[in-house]
Design brief:
heterodimer; A: alpha/beta; Rossmann fold; two-stranded antiparallel sheet; 11 strands; B: alpha+beta; Phosphoribosyl-aminoimidazole Synthetase, Chain A, domain 2; seven-stranded mixed β-sheet; 34% helix; 23% strand; disordered N terminus
Chain lengths: 215, 724
């Protein structure tokens, strides 16, 4: 099982995602200018501020050469996980519906939040328990979509940190192989950090890829 | 403000901040009138900010040697050996005056600047801490604005560049109303063999400018903003404040670290105050060489900049490095990968001169030594104040308040209330090292590769230092070390930022001199060397000087991160013990402030040996894993410390205080409240038990934990109206 972590200039949680994925499989970086996905089985688009998030969060990153390959990979059914800025990039790239708006507080917020797994039948949640404790940290995390969407993760009642519609923390595409979420599972994989609840998302991807390979 | 805009009636040198006597020294050294470019360069290099002319002699009194010191004062940042082949570089620096003018960019570029100081020595920044001071928020729109925008600016830069903000402190006092303090500390990590110095070397080597375009930001910042008192008309100084771009710095950071990893550089230096002038002359001075720079080769953000503007611009996100010509191709390849502009702008010479050319024309030629070493150093003329400097305030608590009322008032007060509304705006976990973050422990803990962890803390207390600068400054060092002890760490090194008023005034000179003595006393007593720091003087407004505010940042090491201490009580049934010789006084205390008292009076005499023993004891207990919690007794005294342990753990306690102990008096850095299974505390002074949902102090008070939480959690929110 091999994860690829996309690295844009301005990615900040890229090493964190690599370390987290490395706990359940191999993990390599994919440079934004390269069109080669190096044969990875799953793509992670990490958090941070790609290209400074100038113009609009994720708006420039969608034009990176690597995103053409990621789009192809997603269309072919490959699992793609976008975390925080990665979620914003996936929405901008049209791989996920909806958009992320500034938090209602208009401030950056870091907080450990409880999440409810609304859909356990995805490549990202198939090995997860029903409730997870994972941190969020963002300024632009208020999910909005006028159309019905496939919700995978919700903030537990009273824990919505950003005013997101219907307490949505993560959504996937109709096919279920592309997930974007604002919380950071890669920051909940080490007992020293206080929570290991994020690890199950990486384990889910491994289990999914394993099943897929076996068919 | 530029030289060109000065009224013609005033001599140029005075308008640029040089005294007549200093200008005469320059004339004598050069044997001629300096050119405009030369005068701009000299005025900045001879400013207080660059030359430390009122503090350098004093700072020599601080101990700088220790078994773990790898790099002492004088480099961009100091560094200590943390074992396993790793070095930790760290430094605290002020950005006070820019932040008072434009708090968001002032604070943001304060963070950006201290990050560059740390990666300039080859260390990857792994943590930021900050120490902030503002006027009273309760009655001041200005203070709320400064706080809100400075916090946003710190978060903007640190969050965007991917360096966690793991700790800090904020206090509110009237004396900071016009002159807020924004001190930022950065901690970086490097393999010991990647540490690099800034000394330029090698005649014919290329001087390469990395990073952002050069614009008109911060021109005159060092002399006009950083070395004069603030007064009316500060709006006009707005163009002097630098604008930060964390994205540019992120690329610059990765680029520099890769250049160093591949050993492609001779030396590296960041551009801070006084821009190219300061960076290049410091590099030349340390290497004993000369430097030629072609100002017309510097890539500019705006057309028509004069050579003097190019030489003193404080545009952010720039670094200067020295490269051997045969390595240029490799260096430029790395810069291209990280999309970082790299421009050769000059070369190293053997002349000992700093020469500036502009399209072939020589516009400045100064001996490097004149710029760096020959600024006169001034003797201070200290004298204790003859009348009180800082008045008392309106009482916020009646003198006869009962103890429970006093406790809730303290927890609600701006100086003690929860900082959650602030630290939730910072990312404390990026880089996946953070083991303890704010409100979990008294110091932040960051795991290292392989084994072990470091602990970091930053502290200051203007009120106590105002009472007695020597004892108060020592107390700050003891408290910072106590924070480290609470997580099980031993201090390896210290950095400090001395924030004071105008040192040309005898009473400020006295505060500064006494405070440095106090820092030395405590550093020597604990065996903690000072590896670097910063001085910020002239922090005055028309109402007088700020409280004397030495800020201390400390780095320590602990062997086992999984045993790092926590501050909150955990288990019902645990015993609570008081460790240390605690001799509280009310002088300068938070209670005294609530009662309207001026910061005056005697601080408790300190027994350095007893303090060291108490720190050792707590550190050993934490490291052994025997304790459930450890917390040092600080502002608000022992009852507030106990309440904080209850709040962090969400559990009550029943305590019997030692007879005659002042429940709200303070004695910073000397004593601790710890909890653990009763057998673990054998031999300690047990004062109570954890349990229930009430903090009950026999004969004094009984308050439900949820009432404590309500006061503590909402104190700052209410003052700031930050409720969502």
């Amino acid at each position: 099982m091999r994860f690829g972590v996309v690295r844009f200039p301005g990615s900040c949680d890229d090493v964190d995602a690599l370390l987290a994925a490395g706990r359940v499989g191999d993990a390599v970086f994919l440079w934004h200018r390269d069109r080669d996905l190096q044969g990875v089985d799953a793509v992670l688009i990490p958090g941070g501020f790609s290209y400074g998030d100038y113009l609009r969060a994720g708006a420039i990153a969608r034009f990176a050469p690597v995103m053409e390959e990621v789009t192809e990979f997603a269309r072919a059914g490959g699992p793609v996980l976008g975390i925080c800025n990665g979620f914003q990039v996936l929405c901008e790239a049209g791989l996920l519906p909806g958009a992320l708006l500034p938090n209602t507080s208009l401030r950056f917020v870091f907080r450990q939040v409880r999440l409810q797994v609304a859909d356990p039948d995805t490549p990202f949640t198939c090995a997860c328990p029903s409730v997870l404790s994972i941190p969020v940290k963002h300024t632009t995390g208020r999910y909005h979509c006028p159309d019905p969407v496939r919700v995978v993760l919700r903030y537990a009642p009273g824990e919505n940190p950003n005013g997101s519609q219907d307490d949505i923390a993560g959504v996937c595409n109709e096919a279920g192989n592309v997930l974007g979420l604002m919380p950071h599972p890669e920051h909940a994989v080490d007992p020293l950090s206080g929570s290991v609840d994020g690890l199950c998302m990486f384990e889910s991807i491994r289990a999914h890829v394993g099943r897929h390979a076996a068919v | 403000m530029s030289a060109a805009t000065q009224p013609s009636s005033e001599p140029r040198h005075r308008a640029l901040g040089l005294t007549d006597a200093e200008y005469d020294l320059i004339l004598a050294a050069l044997g001629r009138e300096p050119s405009g470019v030369e005068l701009a360069m000299l005025s900045l290099m001879w400013s207080e900010h660059c030359a430390y002319k009122h503090s350098k002699k004093l700072l020599r009194r601080l101990p700088t040697d220790g078994p773990h010191v790898l790099v002492g004062p004088g480099e961009n940042a100091g560094a200590v050996d943390v074992g396993g082949g790793l070095a930790v570089a760290f430094k605290v620096e002020s950005h006070n005056h820019p932040s008072a003018v434009e708090p968001f960019q002032g604070a943001a570029t304060g963070v950006g600047g201290i990050l560059r100081d740390v990666f300039a020595v080859g260390a990857r920044p792994i943590a930021v801490l900050d120490s902030l001071r503002f006027g009273e928020v309760a009655g001041s729109e200005r203070s709320r604005y400064l706080l809100e925008r400075a916090v946003a600016g710190i978060g903007h830069y640190g969050n965007s560049i991917g360096v966690p903000t793991v700790g800090g402190e904020i206090y509110f006092e009237p004396s900071y109303e016009q002159n807020c303090l924004i001190n930022a500390m950065c901690v970086g990590l490097a393999p010991c063999d990647r540490l690099i110095r800034s000394a330029a070397a090698g005649e014919g080597n290329v001087l390469l400018l990395l990073g952002a375009l050069t614009g008109r930001d911060g021109i005159g910042g060092a002399s006009v903003l950083a070395s004069a008192e603030l007064g009316d008309g500060d709006e006009a100084k707005r163009p002097s404040v630098q604008i930060g771009d964390p994205f540019a710095e992120k690329k610059l950071l990765e680029c520099c670290l890769e250049l160093l990893d591949r050993a492609l550089l001779v030396s590296l230096q960041d551009l801070g105050a006084a821009g190219l002038t300061s960076a290049a002359s410091e590099m030349a001075s340390k290497g004993g060489v000369g430097i030629d720079i072609d100002a017309s080769g510097v890539p500019l953000r705006e057309p028509g900049m004069e050579p003097f503007e190019i030489m003193v611009s404080e545009s952010q996100e720039r670094m200067l490095c020295v490269v051997e010509p045969e390595r240029m191709a490799d260096v430029l390849g790395v810069c291209e990968h990280w999309e970082t502009l790299a421009t050769p702008i000059g070369q190293i010479t053997d002349t000992g001169l700093f020469r500036v050319l502009n399209a072939g024309e020589l516009v400045a030629e100064l001996p490097v030594g004149l710029l760096v070493d020959e600024c006169p150093l001034y003797e201070l003329a200290p004298a204790p104040p003859t009348s009180p400097l800082y008045p008392g305030a309106e009482p916020q608590l009646p003198a006869g308040a009962v103890a429970s009322e006093t406790l809730l008032a303290l927890l609600r007060s701006a100086n003690i209330a929860s900082r959650r509304a602030v630290f939730e705006q910072y990312d404390p976990v990026v880089q996946s090292r953070t083991v303890r973050r704010p409100e979990q422990a008294d110091a932040a803990v960051l795991a290292l590769e392989g084994a072990g962890a470091i602990a970091v803390s930053i502290d200051g207390n203007g009120r106590r230092v105002a009472c007695d600068p020597r004892a108060g400054a020592a107390e700050v060092v003891y408290e910072c070390a106590a924070n480290l002890a609470c997580v099980g760490a031993e201090p390896l090194g210290m950095t400090n930022c001395l924030n004071f008023g105008n040192p040309e005034k005898p009473h400020v000179a006295w505060q500064l001199t006494e405070a440095v003595e106090g820092l030395r006393d405590a550093c020597e007593a604990l065996g903690v060397p000072v590896v670097g720091g910063n001085v910020s003087l002239y922090n005055e407004s028309p109402d007088g000087p700020i409280l004397p505010t030495p800020v201390v940042g400390m780095v320590g090491r602990l062997p086992e991160p999984s045993r790092a201490g926590r501050l909150g009580f955990v288990h019902a049934g645990d015993a609570i013990a008081l460790v240390g010789r605690f001799c509280p006084s009310r002088a300068g205390s938070e209670l005294a402030k609530l009662l309207g008292d001026a910061p005056a009076g005697r601080l408790p005499a300190k027994n350095a040996e007893a303090i060291g023993d108490a720190h050792d004891r707590v550190r050993s207990l934490v490291r052994s894993g025997a304790l459930s919690s450890a917390h040092d007794i600080a502002e608000g005294g022992i009852v507030v410390a106990l309440a904080e342990c209850c709040l962090a753990g969400g559990v009550g306690a029943r305590v019997h205080l030692p007879d005659g102990l002042d429940p709200f008096g303070e004695d910073l850095g000397t004593a601790f409240v710890v909890s653990g299974p009763p057998p673990a505390l054998t031999g300690c002074q047990v004062i109570g038990r954890v349990g229930g949902d009430t903090l009950e102090i026999e004969g004094l008070l009984s308050v439900e934990v949820r009432d404590l939480a309500d006061a503590h959690a909402r104190g700052l929110d209410q003052l700031l109206a930050w409720d969502e």
